[in-house]
Predict the structure.
Amino acid sequence: MLKIGMVQQSCTADIETNKQRMAEGVRECAAKGAQLVVLQELHNSLYFCQVENVDNFDLAEPIPGPSTSFYGQLAAELGIVLVSSLFERRATGLYHNTAVVFDTDGSVAGKYRKMHIPDDPAYYEKFYFTPGDLGFLPIETSIGKLGVMVCWDQWYPEGARLMAMRGAELLIYPTAIGWESTDTAEEKARQQGAWQTVMRGHAVANGLPVIAVNRVGHEPDPSGQTGGIQFWGHSFVAGPQGEIVAQAGDEAPECIVVEIDLERSEQVRRWWPFLRDRRIDAYESILQRFDD
């Protein structure tokens, strides 16, 4: 059995305040017995991608750097595995949206650079982030192999499948997603439902638990062109048959700890042997942009 903690938090414009909030949430989860704690996407700052502003590159930092030192020390202090999400400055003019995983001794177990980069109104990520180049490789930790991806990656079954094929025991998605104020209530419900459904599908198709940790609260659009983003929280854990094991609310910060049985994935894959029945001889076209 593995105890997993999720820190769903709202963010401010002050980085140190955000880091301390995250640390408090991590400690709360650890106090409840969490062995693995997952943070939301880009948790050190406001979601700066609502606008294209070169000054926001000042938020980026190297890996290793100040934040990896801070979160690594926290993981070591509590003896947990910690999944963080940082704005990586790889080189001058080269930046990534990077998840960093710390093992129980505070060392960096591995990192994942976000592969799929969106470019939508209020989500101008292509302006800031170079697509990842580390592939879909699980990160080996003292509690198992973690298939860590980031937010927009959660819409793509290919990444989840490759993580599963390479031995991931969990699929993990730090996330920053929400509603625009002009969306109707019906549209908001459809968006949130689709978001959760697609990841529950990854759980089912791969016979693995899924963890998605989203930020919460309203963040204004600095340009004033939109009503900002109301991040919808709703962080959740799904089991290997897509069943909801735990789920946070839409409006408030929460720290949730839930216990899951990793060995159950073995049994589920025996009942539903999807990996056995894959037609690997017939999937060549998947490597094309569109099969026309």
The longest strand covers residues 81-91. Helices lie at 15-31, 66-78, 157-165, 185-206, 264-271. Residues 1 and 148 are 20 Å apart (CA to CA). Residues 185-206 form the longest helix (22 residues).
